[in-house]
Amino acid sequence: MVFRKLPGVSASGMGLRLSQKFVFLLFLSGLVTLCFGALFFLPDSVRLKRIFLSKTEIQPVTVGSGSENDAREHLKRPNKDQEHPKAMTPAKGDNKLKSLSRKPSVSQEGTEERLAAGKAHEDLTLSRSKPESASERATSTDHGANSDTFNYLKFKSCLLKPPLGRDNGKPGDPKTNERRERVKEMMKFAWDNYKRYAWGKNELRPLTRNGHIGNMFGGLRGASIIDSLDTLYIMGLMEEYNDAKEWVQSSLDLTANGEASLFEVNIRYVGGLLSAYYLTGEELFKNKVVELGEKLLPAFNTPTGIPRGVINLGSGTSWSWGWASAGSSILAEFGTLHLEFVHLSELTNNPIYKEKVMNIRKLLNKIEKPHGLYPNFLSPVSGNWVQHHVSIGGLGDSFYEYLIKSYLMSDKTDDDAKAMYYSALEAIEANLVQKSPGGLTYMAEWRGGILDHKMGHLACFSGGMIGIGADDGAPEKRQHYLDLAAEITHTCHESYTRSATKLGPEAFRFDSGAEATATRLSDRYYILRPEVIESYMYMWRLTHDPKYREWGWEAVEALETHCRVESGFSGIRDVYTMTVSHDNMQQSFFLSETLKYLYLLFSDDDLLPLEDWVFNTEAHPLPIIRNGCLQDEATQDKTLSE
Ligand code: DMJ
């Protein structure tokens, strides 16, 4: 640049003014940048923000409609005491969480609530520019390209036993068979009413006799259909199964746009379609699941590869939940993808899905853990923990479940998963497992070193989890793990027996004199959850102690008495009162999990034998992958000639 001397101004004077101007301009541009940056911190509702930021970056994520159904699972197991809204608690008058919590009142039905997406916008920018890995580049154009290479017959020949057993698991004992038939009738009743009043919607509202869509699955529909496919099939409800299959064929629209919970879509839709395929061999299910799996991949485009919680299935844009501190991702969400994604790679012969979840695994394995525990919130940008809240219930639960199940599903070859599971369990025992004054064993929650003596209904799955992992623990620990599993299951059963309805509350406590009872009004509801029954089923298979079948039958009777209404099954708002108030929601997991686990509890062990199958966290059975057998040429020849 050429500086011309101005009259009456010395060279040094001019230089001084110029540098003053330069500093001023620098200051001005800094100010503008700051103001623009500050826009990100304004609530999404502020107009200025909407004007200056593009729609995709600030679009609020619609999750957890005011109706209780949604709040549910996307946030799986929220807790109202927590400052984030995973809450699905039906309490009224909790203003802090009002817009985020489950609201079971029929009169509130239809109130759509929106959680502003607390996305880290800078993260989005970073993630978009993240270079792809070599294998990603190699495969990113067609993730389902090799999906026709999976040999179903060969897969079947590698199973140790027929999936449906000798006689579809029919028990020899007539009383048990009668009980099993009752559960089958419950499934038919739930299904028929869904079909009649809510066909194609996500759930049935049994009191108002209509369908519920909610916002957890983006534009996807038919959650109850996808969640029911395998249950109908194993129960031999073939007419119903065929209707469901026909709907998948003609109406499951995977091109629908909308913000969905990555976790929920994965455990229900991906899990449900995978199971349906493995059980039936119907190519339709495979094609659908591969198409869907591909749509989930952009969620992993973050600086660390840890996916965010919400994804727009149309555009591939993803966000963190608005309530998750500092744009963090949730352990139970990004840690509950492994089983399904490994199977997607199996079916497509494309390693990308497995790579995505192995990357999560590696990061979690490497990162420093407070007292060996895994906190529930992690930044997808820095890969660091964001808060030190640890829970085996909401926000954490199925991460631990997927560690041991990954090991089992790998035909016990996934040693990292094994090592991580047992060391996590050790840390849990050392820090969270407690004995109440009344002698009940429970899992407390941990908040930066301080124990909250509360156990969520969701945490009751851990009886079954510790049970199925017992056998592969250190030899001197095996009996101990089985005992621990039985104790936890016993405690969860106590939480049922101590209520008037004999159904368990959403959370129960062990402080201020409480022993496995809810002390807060807002924890008293029951939304047809499966976790306690899930543990009965596993403990029955592992021990054959008849008490587990008796406990399961108690639950059937309580469900029939308090949750069956004229047009389906409904959750209830207070398990401690006999004059029940229904929440008007038949959750899809009632069909996929609660009734399936009850049916299996009253069936012979050869129906979906644990030697061949692991259940995903929505109770969809996925086969153990026997690579040795699958790659064996002799088996190949055998199947080809079949
Ligand atoms: C289900 O969707 C799954 O079991 C999930 O892991 C947790 N919660 C519900 C049922 O309670």
Automatic annotation (TrEMBL):
Pathway: Protein modification; protein glycosylation. Residues 69-86, 111-135 have a biased composition (Basic and acidic residues). Its cofactor is Ca(2+). InterPro entries: 6hp_glycosidase-like_sf (IPR012341), Glyco_hydro_47 (IPR001382), Glycosyl_Hydrolase_47 (IPR050749), Seven-hairpin_glycosidases (IPR036026). Disulfide bonds join C460-C492. The keyword tRNA-binding does not apply. It is a single-pass type II membrane protein. This is alpha-1,2-Mannosidase. The lineage of its organism: Eukaryota, Metazoa, Chordata, Craniata, Vertebrata.
